[in-house]
Amino acid sequence: MSDVVVLGSMNMDLVVRVGHIPRPGETVLGRDFVTVPGGKGANQAAAAARLGVRVEMLGRVGADAFGEAMLANLYAQGVGTAHVRRDHANPSGIALITVDERGENAIVVAPGANGRVSVEDVEGAEDVIKQAQFLLMQFEVPLPTVRAAIGLASRWGVRVILNPAPAQAVRPDFFQGVYCLVANETEAEILTGLAVRSLEAAARAGQALRQMGVPVAIVTLGAEGALLSTEEGDLHVPARKVEVVDTTAAGDAFIGGLVAALLKGMPWPEAVRYATCAGTLATTVLGAQTSLPDAARVEAFFREGRP
Ligand code: ADP
């Protein structure tokens, strides 16, 4: 039994720090090479598990060393991996990342097995999906697969939380059956065509997302927190000021916090406040999965901020 099923991507990030990012044809000498498990699906699964949620991962890795390492990492974080497929025809997804001294980066993503997660995979996982409270997805696996999973989950009354990242324009009816959309400013803009540069604009974007048939839309606003849009109205939940070290995976921590809070039975405004706390705490620590806060930290920060 799991509370949340995550259908999404797993990538191995291959990271090298360099003096400067090489130009075409140039070779530069890098510093230490590190491998870091990532991918939005895996990060969000880890974020929820870190907060005590029972999570099952669905997706594909290659039958290779990166795949084994990513599954071992997820398992170590408390995420169920028994239903992740090992794809013998495609390599694991990877991201080649160079980071220069100013923190600028250049990234090449090769989705590999993530790009092969299929409608048949979703149908084969019906028993896993149907017993969950929530199905959580992103846009790093093929969109027809995501669409099929929305349909299957809604037939079983499983609530779908969708983070349309990286942003891709889709037909408005794509979201029929989704319970909650969580988009950052860029994603909200690409989906709605509305520039999100103020709280009022975020509220308008939230409403536009809801007009696509989704009861709840959340637009995350970085240091400004998040905007919750429901039929009861709009609510801005500010983020508290912290010493920001690295905002990588803040959005993933936010989503982990959101599902954890909803599973605790919190109403939407409280749940978004809890999620905002999780997102903000993730910005105070370097890294992606390494920066995800645990339940004790989020709860302490959440209680501290109560009026
Ligand atoms: P993404 O990482 O997907 O682009 P955001 O940048 O909107 O998403 O961040 C997600 C959440 O992380 C925000 O809603 C907020 O709670 C928290 N957060 C991000 N950046 C900051 C920051 N500079 N200060 C405080 N909280 C932040």
What descriptors fit this protein?
307 residues, alpha/beta, UDP-N-acetylmuramoyl-L-alanine:D-glutamate ligase, nine-stranded mixed beta sheet, 10 helices, 15 strands, 25% strand, globular, binds adenosine-5'-diphosphate
What is the spatial order of strands in the main beta sheet? 6-4-1-10-11-12-13-14-15
Structural class: alpha/beta
CATH architectural label: 3-Layer(aba) Sandwich
Distance between the termini: 37 Å
What is the tally of helical segments?
A: 10
Report the major sheet: 9 strands, mixed
Low-confidence stretches: none
Ligand inventory reads: adenosine-5'-diphosphate
Portion of residues in helices?
A: 25-40%
Shape: globular
Average pLDDT: 96
Number of domains: 1
Integer-rounded radius of gyration: 19 Å
General description of the model:
The chain has 307 residues and is α/β, with parallel strands linked by helices. It has one domain (4-10, 39-83, 113-304): UDP-N-acetylmuramoyl-L-alanine:D-glutamate ligase. The chain is 35% helix and 25% strand. The protein is built from ten helices and 15 strands. The strands form three sheets. A nine-stranded mixed sheet has the order 6-4-1-10-11-12-13-14-15, sandwiched between helices. Helix 1 packs across helix 8. The longest helix is centred in the last third of the chain and has 15 residues, at 268-282. The model has no long low-confidence stretch (mean pLDDT 96). Adenosine-5'-diphosphate (ADP) is lined by residues 184, 220-223, 225-226, 239, 242, 244, 247, 250-251, 254, 276, 279-280, 283.
